[in-house]
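Honest question from a wet-lab person: if I give you the sequences of every part of a complex, can you actually get the arrangement of the whole thing, not just the pieces? Trying it with mine:
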Amino acid sequence: MSWGNDAGAPRQVRLARHPCYRAEAHGRFGRIHVAVAPRCNISCNYCVREFACANENRPGVTTRVGGVDEALRIVADAVRRDPRLTVLGVAGPGDALANEPTFELFERAGREFPELTFCLSTNGLLLLDRIDDVERLGIDTLTVTVNAIDPDIGARIYAHVRYRGRTYHGREGFELLSRHQLEGLRQAARRGIAVKVNTVLIPGVNDTHVQDVARLVRALGASTFNIIPMIPLGRFASIPEPAPEQVAAAQDLTEKDIDQFRGCTRCRADAIGVPGEQDCALLATAGSKE
Ligand code: CLF
Ligand code: SF4
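Yes, you can. This is the full assembly:
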């Protein structure tokens, strides 16, 4: 099966082949995550990252963190194996924008794989600082995780925020993060980048707040909203995972304000494949050593 060469295709065409943006693309097209971003600049209370993990399927884990050369070999191997893989994404295991290899990767991939859609997922702290780079590198789709807009709620979700050599806690940390997230996503949308907001649904913390988040990010230019049930880990290990009905209710509520993506499979940082099918990250990693 061939889907032709999308190099230079209008963004709408590229979006139509993005499994995390268009319902009709979900189950038909896939993504290649390359784990070139180990470091993070904030601390979410539900986060546990693992850099040598083969048997868990969730964000923040990868079999290994590799360099850009290895990542590009993985991409070449993956697109050769499966032409349905249309999206190249950096989604951790830390924050994409807090790791310089992310930028080198997209720079080189722009020359080597111009037909792929470039996707980047971030906590948004550095989005304002790097928005020119994000645009220059041809990032088509940008995901910003926005878990709150109310400082009283946000201060409960993040243990700290580290920015330009200083560490911020509590409300101060959240307000800094939130300003950068919201202004960054507004500027990205104004530059024509398709912006999706991921909101991690945390029972008892932000579950009555998601509509406020959805309305504001829509007003700022986000086009898609993805409510992700929190996996109880780290400092939030004792909070129960939201039931599927809770997630569906939050999606139904916010659907009035913004398009929903309902097919999220909470991918690993090195997931490769069509979401919902078995990922072949280990296979591709092994292939890269050939
Ligand atoms: Fe990857 Fe994320 Fe891009 Fe998709 S995943 S960087 S937007 S190409 Fe997709 Fe995976 Fe859910 Fe993310 S199913 S965790 S929403
Ligand atoms: Fe973990 Fe991602 Fe939060 Fe960083 S932004 S602490 S990697 S969940």
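Two things worth pointing out. The radius of gyration is 18 Å. The chain has one domain: 11-287.
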